[in-house]
Amino acid sequence: MADIAPFPAPNQGSASRAAANAMTAPPETVPAGQSRPRDPRLDFYRGIAMFIILVAHVPGNRWGGWIPARFGFSDATEIFVFCSGMASAIAFGGSFARHGWWLGTARVAYRCWQVYWAHIGLFFFLAMSMAVLDLTLASDKSYIGSLNLHPFFSNTVSQMVGIFTLTYVPNYFDILPMYLVVLALMPAVMGLRHAGRWAVAGFSVALWLLANPYVLGLGPNGLSLPAEPWSDREWFFNPFGWQLLFFTGFAFMSGWLPKPPVHWGLAVLAACFLIFSAPFGSWKVFSWLNAAAPDLGATIRPVWSVIGEWREKTDFGLLRFVHFLSLAYLAWIVAGAGGRNLYARGNSLLARIWTGILAVVTKVGQQSLAIFITSMALARFLGAALDQTDRSIAATAVANLCGFVLIIACAYGAGWFKSQPWRRKR
Questions:
Q1: Which residue(s) pair with 234 in the sheet?
Q2: Residue 14 has pLDDT above 90, yes or no
Q3: CA atoms within 13 A on the CB side of 266
Q4: Rg (CA), the chain
Q5: Per-position DSSP letters for 115-172, written without gaps between them
Q6: In this entry, which stretches build a coiled coil (predicted)?
Q7: What is the pTM of this model?
């Protein structure tokens, strides 16, 4: 499952319309005294991740063969979790700084409450929807079974308790629980911050090591949470491993970690790691290399079993972390200082088209929770629609493009409701 962790969107109220407009303008054109509410790179890259996540979750999607996960260790999950940490530094870090630890913790608890009920609502909506599809579509496929929900429907009384206590977490529904646990760690991190940055770093790294004990040669079984009471399966996204990436983004946005220097040597090193690690992190790339050079492929194949734990997604293996940081560094350079390279120059047709694309992708990135929930449900309906076709290139393109249009509409709709237009003075 390619997943993500929704987080607070910027205030879109009437009092912040001018600031929101400034965010979509080049930095040098923002009027003096008016600050942009967010770094434009944050919502742009998060918006890209949201489109990728939709593609990744449509069952049997041809386009899913070309998402980042098919070309290396990390994927859109890392993009979203990292940006989640950055956005949380803006939304929650400021609350801790301005109002103190107790009120900052209360703000986090309130967000946890929102995300918890979003998780519960998403589960029951999709459980109902899969039941409707099973009852109405003439198909040999069980849509309830496609999400492994038979245990819930066959033993509802027991599993209802598991759903609400997060001791029964089906794979498709595991990103929001992971985010809840990571958010719950934030008060501890903010408290440790008073002891210094090294205390925070030590806490985060120690938790990650507990989830990944293989790094210290302590065996494969680390700290995790149970996903279902009848087996030993753990949460697909182990929050004790993934918090390392979240708090890395948090630390960069909070200024606890310095901005990485822009240096051609580091850029070359990052690019080389991305390119040369691809056959070890992607079966797709490996199959290409193996077809072109079977002897080299035979040499590489045994490495896959050796690095299994180091590239594992569940506990966030170290190779995924290094791969994402390499990718993020190049994205940092490409976007330029303050994201200035994202903005088109001039008034040509291409410049206007790109400006429109940038605005749309940014809007999608801003409305994270609404878009995530919508895309997770929408992906299943698009998959069911494709089941009624021959899954041709054209049918797949139509399904994906319709999905894009719908999540864009959701983003603008959510933004409109958040602006509370009914409160504006005439």
A1: 226
A2: no
A3: 13
A4: 22
A5: HHHHHHHHHHHHHHHHHHHHHHS--S--HHHHTT-HHHHHSHHHHHHHHHHTS---GG
A6: none
A7: 0.87
